[in-house]
Every structure is written in structure tokens, then in C-alpha cells.
Amino acid sequence: MKIGPQTRFGRMAQALSLHPVFQRFGPAVMPRIDRAMHKLTGGRVMIGQMMLPMVMLEHTGAKSGLPRQTPLATMPDGDGFWLVGSNYGRSGHPVWTRNLLAHPDVAVVQHGKRHPLRARLVDGAERDAIWPKLTAFWPGYAEYQRMNDPSSPSGRVIRVFRLDPR
After folding, report:
1. Mean of per-residue pLDDT scores for the chain
2. 153 to each of 13, 15, 103, 104, 148, how far by Cα in Å?
3. For residue 22, what is the domain's CATH number?
4. 91 occurs within a structural domain
5. Number of folded domains that form the chain
6. Is residue 2 part of a domain?
């Protein structure tokens, strides 16, 4: 079976990710399932891979200093990765984005291989340039941004990070 956002399965998964029931329960359930699958398969498989390329982000807690693992969709780009802090369209930036701002040295595990990387927040003109590629890669990001209209009091600009080899 072909996978990805341009397939019928990918389009169905995207529609599901925007459904109010998924919006309520998916953000709590999906990461737990992906962490379990990642552990069981030695980092080779996550459920989210049926929709998009996935990585397990290894990062350090901004306040606690403790190691953290977060399963995330990614857009691979050469020997680096793009990460979008969409938080499933919910208000507020995901915690992992604060952690990357505080501790940019990270690693990702993709298909069982660990890659040490350095994260940097992409904003301004650079973010504006990559955003159309990210939304073409996963159109749900555009809807998530509309759900968080930056001009509203509770809105936000979704954070984008570039991860490059150290």
C-alpha cells in the first residue's frame, strides 16, 4: 500500500485529524501508541508512518533538564529535517518546541537509526519561504494555522524548526 498525504489513505487520515472527536482524543492517544510501537520495534515503526514520515525526537526538558521523547511527523530534507509545532491545531505551542528553544542539541530516531542534530527556530522570511512546501507536504498544517489565527487574541503563529547535523 502506498502511503503519504497525496494518497487516498493520507487524505482520509488528514480529514480524520481535523475531526472534532480526533481533536479531543487523538493528541493524547496517538503519541502513546507511537511511543509504544517505537519501543517494540526498536525505532523502526510508528503508526503515524501510514500518513507521513515520522521521527522520534529525543530532546531535553526546558525546565526539568530531563530527557524526553516525542513522536513527530517530519519533512525530511537532505541530511536534515523540518518539524512543525502544529500541536494538532490546538491553541498553545507544544511543549517540545519550548524544549528545543532552550536546548537545541537533539537527536531523531528514524527507521531505527539515530541522528544527532541541532534545532533552530525558523521565522520571518525563511519561515514564509518554507511554509508553502510544508503545507503542500501535509495540507493539514494550513488548516491548523487557520484554527490558530495569529490576529485573534488566543491565536499563534505555528513554530517551524529546522534540524541539521551537528
Report:
1. 86
2. 30, 27, 28, 29, 10
3. 2.30.110.10
4. yes
5. 1
6. no
CA–CA separation, 98 and 159 (whole Å): 10
pLDDT per residue over 1-20, tens digit each?
444 555 666 666 666 666 67
Give the chain's length.
166
Q: Is the pTM of this model over 0.85?
A: no
165 close to 116: Cβ distance less than 8 angstroms: yes
8-18 vs 20-40: helix axis angle to the nearest 10? 120
Hey, is 17 helix, strand or coil? Answer: helix
Residue 125: give the domain boundaries: 8-165
Please name the residue that has the C-alpha cell 526539568: 64
Q: Is residue 47 part of a domain?
A: yes
Q: What is the pLDDT of residues 30-41, one digit of tens each?
A: 777 777 777 777
